[in-house]
Fold this protein.
Amino acid sequence: MLKFKELYKEFCGFLEKETFDFEPKELYEPVSYTLALGGKRIRPIMALLSCDFFGGDIKEAMNPAMGIEIFHNFTLLHDDIMDDAPIRRGKETVYKKWNSNIAILSGDTMFALAYKYITQTDSKYLKTILEVFNKTAIEVCEGQQYDMNYETEDNISISDYMKMIRLKTAVFLGAALKIGALIAETNRNNVDHIYCFGENLGMAFQLQDDYLDVFGNEAKFGKKTGGDIITNKKTFLYLKAFELARGEELKVLEENFIPNHPNNELKVEKIKEVYRKLKVDEYSAIEINRYYQKAMQHFEKIDCPDCDKVEMLNFAERLIKREY
Amino acid sequence: MLKFKELYKEFCGFLEKETFDFEPKELYEPVSYTLALGGKRIRPIMALLSCDFFGGDIKEAMNPAMGIEIFHNFTLLHDDIMDDAPIRRGKETVYKKWNSNIAILSGDTMFALAYKYITQTDSKYLKTILEVFNKTAIEVCEGQQYDMNYETEDNISISDYMKMIRLKTAVFLGAALKIGALIAETNRNNVDHIYCFGENLGMAFQLQDDYLDVFGNEAKFGKKTGGDIITNKKTFLYLKAFELARGEELKVLEENFIPNHPNNELKVEKIKEVYRKLKVDEYSAIEINRYYQKAMQHFEKIDCPDCDKVEMLNFAERLIKREY
């Protein structure tokens, strides 16, 4: 079985050869810019990994993998407008560098380009792949809407939050694996379990992301921690802290989780202190592990005696146990 | 062959049965609102008409036709944000009624929903249909980008303008007919000619739209004329007028085609007077007829002895010779 690094190299090679220097340049320059920003390319690699895992030919999965990566970047592009985010992967976001009209329309073009790549696959599984992809694309939009709703809504529960990250992040990881499995033409049982494996891994992945945003190693994480605290984002840590806090700790949370805090550094420090006191970091680790175990239960149900499970398990472990 | 009115009724019946009352409601209410705004439903009817014309079963074309209509409405939704347009079909636009984030994201959802409907078609022609649709979706984005570029660019030629309306409007009418023809499984020659028929008809349709915006019957047109003049839109009429105008007429154009004219009623009156003097209305009629004739040349090359051509020709004529 191919290793993650080999697949990463293969995919990046493919991506680099695909150029978008078409007219009008106002539309296509942001497409090239966005795709060149980098990122971990997790989703396309997952499609390739799954295809390879089930004995398929990764060449067959390359175009759909490209479609998956373009779609992911399209969602980031539009999310950045909605979230008013100036920086993405250390560079200006499209809507800051150009303007929001350009960001809307080049995003729309990327959406269409994603489908163009996904369509470039064998007719025999095209329809099934599209059904997965269409459903997932809609769910990702629903997840983003819940995320925006939660910004202004009070009384968000942990289960609301889990629903949101499932839609916004987890289902897409499941879908990437499922698409790879469909291209490899494995059986229905395996297709379903690899999806659930990916979905639960996706939950763990996002919870880990939230954890790292607060407690991550800044040097390794590549960005300053505390971003979610500064923006009062209702993550698992935030919601768990409010669930547990009483007396003085509740007061610190209430006094610091306010818009336009006069001292963000102090805010982050105080909130982190409360998080540690309440052990929400440990609760977070328990949740991450719970989803990781659920993922593993589905993985074990995959019926594929000839499959080399090592690389897939390595990948899953690296995804969750990463420190950045 | 089924008449336009029958197909319109069939399609509207189908559309009304498809409801979008899903969660989160912030995402789906704008979808239902947009689809209920009405409109002429020209594009889906063209797909059904073409399918029926070539002897196909319109039931097979209903889902793709729905996808076509949803996609068209998605483009309007996003265009309204970009154009800062407050009113669409006599009602508030989504971005005015809600906000631009809601409009971006419900638009994205409609894009995904469009593909969901288009995918609900027989596997045997799914790939071909998608190739047409993907290409067209990208072209429509390109057309919108040119349209935005032209707002601030000087020295736009009539041929630039024709390229823009071809991408933004005409190709989609061609694609709607082509998709219907593909579902009816007619031969390649017919598929290509019905596309070109639709594309040229689309050019005539847009030029007619521009003409009616200035010279249309306000009661029949359903909106006040002169909108394009007030916004200094570089339509065929505008560009032709600048091409022909000399001396006093050029002065009137230059003095009135300015941002924030103090008296829009007077502006429209003066520009219309120059347009009439320069006979740009007649030049416009010549162009419309030229594209109409090109459409007819392609129509004549359709090799289908058993096809009843009357209804298709009636439709084409009504599309172009309309007064509103």
Q: What stands out?
A: Residues 123-152 of chain A form the longest helix (30 residues). Chain A is about 75% helix and 0% strand.
